[in-house]
Amino acid sequence: MASIDITGRDPRLDECRFRVACDVTNPLCGKNGATYIYGPQKGVTAEMKESLDQAMAHYASVAADTLGQDHAEAAGAGAAGGLGFALLSFLNAELTPGIQLILDAVGLEEELKDADVVITGEGRLDHQTAMGKAPVGVAELAKKHGATVIAFAGSVTPDAGACNAAGIDAFFPIVRGVTALEEAMDPENAKANMRACAEQVFRLL
Q: How far is CA 180 from CA 142, 154, 184, 186, in A?
């Protein structure tokens, strides 16, 4: 990429405010950026990472020269393969944790004020969960009111311990044995697994 031409940009964009739900805080480039963190999910191999990351950094540099502002290191710039960076740069968007938008809308904090135990979870708990996803957003609110936070998940990765540091007191995978993905995700099996896991946790409590 040699240059970016924004002469056709609609001037009405200057009259707009874009508030974007963004669940991650990754920068655009580097070991914690879009290519290294999310690329492998889309087929990027270890051999491809460095060259793709360099290309992303070059794109950011050209964009900064064009616009006079550099958002490559901004929290969330690496979201959705770098879409966060594009929204920040070309639409002057505000990236807001999606969970915060939802929690505000449903008034969850009010519901948590008298809670002793708060249950949260998602399909897979990993280190990305601790970077601003829904379970951690719930945990942050729960901790403000002194509640114990327990998370259930379909699977748990070795690096999910980061969730403990982010406010989740304990987390549990619900799958009870070796199984095929289709079997684990069958609604009836999932309900049975969830019931069984939750029962054992609350027997302890």
A: 34, 12, 6, 10
3-state SS assignment for residue 158: helix
What is the tens place of the pLDDT at every residue in 127-167? 888 877 889 989 999 999 999 999 999 999 999 999 999 99
- Alpha-carbon span 117 to 98, nearest angstrom: 23
- SS3 letters for 40-108? HHHCCCHHHHHHHHHHHHHHHHHHHHHHCCCCCCCCCCCHHHHHHHHHHHHHCCEEECHHHHHHHHHCH
Encoded tokens for 183: 């079997």
Distance CA 40, CA 106 (A): 34
Indicate yes or no: pTM above 0.85: no
Phi, psi of 111 (to 5 degrees): -70, -25
Hey, how many other C-beta atoms are within 10 angstroms of the C-beta on 20? 18
Amino acid identity of residue 92, one-letter, is N
> Among positive and negative, which fits the CA dihedral 102, 104, 106, 107?
positive
**Contact call for residues 18 and 94 (beta carbons, < 8 A):** yes
**Quick one: which of 163, 160, 188, 189 has its CA closest to 176?**
189
Q: Token match 């987390």: residue?
A: 171
- Could you tell me which residues come within 8 angstroms of residue 177 by beta carbon, excluding any fewer than 6 positions away? none
Closest CA to 152 of 199, 108, 188: 199
